[in-house]
């Protein structure tokens, strides 16, 4: 049975009668919910900052390169570094299931690149079409290297945005030509990193050409400096990493147990470790926030016990007039829920408002903090906080309500 209007008016009158006590009790719940929402919002900002460092690049990838071997094998001595070849890339694509994309890169450093009389030393990168998908590079204009460019070894180039600005100024470079070691390349696009970081500065300065064109035009041989390998969505790249390394060691006569020879960096493992770390941090923040809220709930419970003690005679009169225990219990719990729900809701609004204010301030003033980005409160946190408010109100009123229901009318009405 729901509370009627008279019952609510009676509860409000009781609360108004003890304004200071009610206010201090409500403050405990307000602060508990406020701190819960605030610490979770700030924790999400730290998590967003950490994940933002990965950018939009694929998370399920690994980087593979060669390094000097440390163990003799098949007549080869330690210290020999294998030279990765384009054929290795084709072998990986052919023999290892679960591979989605393999993107090799070969670089020529400090090579003069000219447009008319304007020239500067640049990094020339030979790539296939898959690198832009994995490395989260952004096209500013035109297009990137495509399959046809690779198959026909076309003399086309994609410029980093900063290289394009230096050589072409405000004019569009698309369709224009640049000269690399006497070979003319037509510019088909400009690119750059989605996020400018110290380790992405080189992307803005580089010039990308088809890998096959680099082989033919500059006589580099079909070698590869390193490649990036991504796995399918249903397969973790850590599962295919041993297979890739074993295949390359076999092809280049590296001892299967040699810890070096073929090096790899698994981005998926780093990403998963950060996910696990922030899972633990969020659990700790929930623990701290709920602990603070429980302190407020205990305060509400204590005050409700005092209220029941003060209203013992009134409760005795109600029971003597035939009020069932359920009515007494419902009245006490309703009073508890009203205090916790009202103060908690205000704490929820205040915490959410503060997080929103911090996020807006950072966005409007373009404040960049590498380890902190876009603090926010998710719908799950909001619903969870509301559920906690309801449970808190009920829990805070249960024990006092039971005391009230057990009041003996005869004892309550006895003159002291």
UniProtKB/TrEMBL annotation:
Residues 287-409 form the ABC3 transporter permease C-terminal domain. Keywords: Cell membrane, Membrane, Transmembrane, Transmembrane helix. It is a multi-pass membrane protein. It holds the Pfam family MacB_PCD. It is found in: Cell membrane. The chain crosses the membrane at residues 20-42, 283-308, 328-357, 377-399. The keyword Transmembrane helix applies. InterPro entries: ABC3_permease_C, MacB_PCD, Macrolide_Exporter_MacB. Residues 22-246 form the MacB-like periplasmic core domain. Belongs to the ABC-4 integral membrane protein family. This is ABC transporter permease.
């Amino acid at each position: 049975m729901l509370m009627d209007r008279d019952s609510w008016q009676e509860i409000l009158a009781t609360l108004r009668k003890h304004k200071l006590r009610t206010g201090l009790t409500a403050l405990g719940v307000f602060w508990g919910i406020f701190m819960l929402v605030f610490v979770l919002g700030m924790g999400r900002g730290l998590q967003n900052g950490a994940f933002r460092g990965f950018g939009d690049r694929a998370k399920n990838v690994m980087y593979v390169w060669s390094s000097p071997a440390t163990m003799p094998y098949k007549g080869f001595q330690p210290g020999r570094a294998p030279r990765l070849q384009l054929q290795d890339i084709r072998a990986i694509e052919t023999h290892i299931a679960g591979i989605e994309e393999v993107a090799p890169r070969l670089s020529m450093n400090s090579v003069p690149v000219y447009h008319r009389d304007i020239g500067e030393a640049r990094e020339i990168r030979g790539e296939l079409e898959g690198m832009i998908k994995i490395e989260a590079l952004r096209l500013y204009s035109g297009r990137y290297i495509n399959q046809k460019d690779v198959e026909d070894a076309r003399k086309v180039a994609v410029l980093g945005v900063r290289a394009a600005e230096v050589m072409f100024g405000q004019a569009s470079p698309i369709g224009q030509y640049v000269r690399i070691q006497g070979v003319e390349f037509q510019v088909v696009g400009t690119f750059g990193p989605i996020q400018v970081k110290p380790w992405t500065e080189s992307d803005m300065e580089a010039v990308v050409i088809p890998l096959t064109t680099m082989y033919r035009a500059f006589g580099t041989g079909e070698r590869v400096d390193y490649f990036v390998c991504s796995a399918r969505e249903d397969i973790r790249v850590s599962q295919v990493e041993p297979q890739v390394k074993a295949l390359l060691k076999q092809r280049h006569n590296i001892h299967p147990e040699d810890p070096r020879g073929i090096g790899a960096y698994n981005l998926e493992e780093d990403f998963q470790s950060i996910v696990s770390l922030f899972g633990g941090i969020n659990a700790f923040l929930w623990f701290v926030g709920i602990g603070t809220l429980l302190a407020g709930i205990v305060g509400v419970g204590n005050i409700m016990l005092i209220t029941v003690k003060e209203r013992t005679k009134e409760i005795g009169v109600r029971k003597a007039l035939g009020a069932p225990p359920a009515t007494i219990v419902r009245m006490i719990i309703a009073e508890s829920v009203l205090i916790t729900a009202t103060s908690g809701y205000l704490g929820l609004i205040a915490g959410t408002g503060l997080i929103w204010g911090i996020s807006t301030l950072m966005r409007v003033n373009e404040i960049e903090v590498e380890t902190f980005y876009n603090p926010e409160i998710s719908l799950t946190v909001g619903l969870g906080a509301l559920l906690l408010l309801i449970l808190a109100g009920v829990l805070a009123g249960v024990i006092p309500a039971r005391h009230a229901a057990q009041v003996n009318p005869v004892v309550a009405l006895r003159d002291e």
